Amino acid sequence: MVRLTRRGALRGAVLLGGAAALLGGTDAAFAAVEQPSIASCGAWGARPPAGALTVVQHKPNKIVVHHTALANSNDFSQAHAFADSREIQDLHMDGNGWVDSGQHFTNSRGGWLTEGRHGSLYALLHSQTMVQGAHCVGQNDQAIGIENEGTYLTEQPPAAQWNSLVAFCAFTCRQYGIPATEIYGHKDFNNTQCPGLLHDRLPELRSAVAARL
Ligand SMILES: [Zn+2]
Question: What secondary structure letter does DSSP report for 4?
Answer without folding.
Answer: B
